[in-house]
Every structure is written in C-alpha cells, then in structure tokens.
Write a structure and sequence with these properties.
Layout (H helix, E strand, L loop, with lengths): L4 H10 L8 E3 L2 E2 L11 H7 L11 E5 L5 H8 L4 E6 L2 H14 L4 E5 L12 E7 L8 H11 L1 E8 L31 E3 L12 E3 L1 H10 L2 E8 L2 E6 L18
Parallel strand pairs: 3-4, 3-6, 4-5, 6-7
Antiparallel strand pairs: 1-2, 7-11, 8-9, 10-11
C-alpha cells in the first residue's frame, strides 16, 4: 500500500478500536494508546523462540485471529497456507487492512467460530489459539474440537490467567473423603466470571496456570514448552478414555 502516514492513520482509525497494536510503517500504530503498550508484539517476543523459525511448506490456522498479528507473523516465517478465523467482522476487516498496509499476501480470513472448525475439513501443521479460551462459554469443548478436527501437529495456546502460578503435583486419584487438595494454590482451578471483568462482558473464565496445563493435557495435547506463564506450545497426542467432543443437535425453532 502506498498511503502517506496521514491517510494510513485515517484508515486505521476508521477501522478501530484495535486490540492488536501493530506498526504499519511511517510511525503509524494501530492502537497508539493501547493499555498494554506494544501488544501483542511485546508478548510474542518473549516466546517466539519456541516456534519453528522456518515454516516453509507448513499450514497454519489462527483461531480468533483478531487484527491479524499472529497470522502475519506466521506468514513472514514462510508458512504456505495461513487461514485466520474470527467471529467478529470488525476484527477481520482490521486483519485484511493490516495485511494490505504491510504488504503481506497469501493469508485467507474467514468469519467463523471456534465451535465450527469441524466444517473446515482440513488439518493444519500449526494451530494458533491465543487469547480466546477465556472469552468462551464452553472452553474445554473448544479444545476438544481443535484436537478432533484441525490440529495435526503443534498448538500454540494462550489464555488470560488468574490465581496462583504454582503448579501442584496432582495424584491420579483421591478418595471421596479427601478434600484438602482442592484448596491448594497449585491445584487446577477455573474461575467463572458471572458478570463483567475489566469492562468486558465476554470474559467468562480465568484459569490458573495449573488449570490451563491440565485442560490441554485432558484434551489430548502434550506440553512441549511453557515459556511464559500464560503461553504453552503443545503437540497433538493421545487422549484418555471417556474424552470426546460433544456435538449437540440443533432443533428447528418453533
């Protein structure tokens, strides 16, 4: 795109507000007043080293792609197939504009929920699932659907977490009469948010670090790296017994 900084600023502002604060060039950032500063760039630089530097020939699915930051970064690493999905048309418009402004081509964006990934009919070498889980009413279902339908090898996961960063060693089983382990700071816990949190009514859940790890393992992902308390790089593995994604039927409205 050959827009001067003023025109670039106007286009970015018209598509705002932005959650992904990206440098579009010419000193133009998409969200210059972001409360987290250079986000998600500052976050990414803390764990980028655990991802393959060369994704040539690989396919990537970015679930909840927002303004397109991670999809763009994976394309820059050489991924041949990059698909970004999001349920919010405003974010998809931002992502398309960011690609245009930065001169990054070869990324497809579609409006789609994580609950609909089974309709894609393809698997990806890397699934990016960053900043989505805590916005979902049914978070474990989402992980199950990712494992069953789209993850072929790696999963990059991040969730907002609250509570202790400790990770307790949990026994395979406990007698019914024993309850003390539930109160341990490092026991897996998921905090339910009934109303708003940080003025956002879509914040439904806040796991602690142990819970994020436990949910990933339960869904069939083995953890390869945990370079940041909230970030996990996983590999699709085997699931235990009695684990499968639920597919509720949708009745016709009467």
């Amino acid at each position: 795109m050959t827009l001067d900084p003023g025109a670039l600023r106007a286009r970015a502002d018209a598509l705002g507000p932005w959650f992904h604060n990206m440098d579009l060039g010419g000193g133009v950032w998409t969200a210059p007043g972001h409360f987290l500063g250079d986000y998600p760039g500052v976050k990414f630089r803390g764990f980028a080293h655990v991802l393959p530097e060369d994704l040539t020939g690989k396919s990537v699915l970015d679930i909840g792609c927002n303004g397109g930051f991670y999809a763009i970064e994976m394309r820059r690493r050489g991924a041949s197939r990059v698909l970004g999905i999001d349920f919010d048309e405003d974010y998809l418009a931002q992502a398309r504009f960011a690609c245009e402004a930065l001169g990054v081509d070869g990324i497809e964006f579609r409006r789609m929920s994580v609950y609909d990934v089974g309709s894609l009919g393809e698997r990806f070498d890397l699934v990016v699932f960053m900043g989505v889980l805590y916005h979902l009413r049914h978070p474990l279902l989402a992980l199950d659907l990712i494992w069953e339908n789209v993850a072929d090898d790696l999963l990059l996961f991040q969730s907002m977490q609250r509570g202790s960063d400790e990770v307790a060693e949990v026994a395979p089983d406990y007698p019914f009469s024993e309850q003390g382990h539930f109160d341990a700071p490092g026991y897996p816990k998921m905090h339910f948010i009934e109303r708003d949190y940080s003025q956002d009514p879509t914040n439904w859940w806040a796991p602690n670090r142990a819970c994020s790890a436990a949910m990933l393992r339960s869904a069939g992902f083995s953890i390869l790296a945990n370079p940041d308390p909230e970030v996990f790089l996983c590999r699709r593995g085997e699931r235990g017994p009695f684990v499968e994604a639920a597919y509720p039927s949708k009745s016709v409205a009467r």
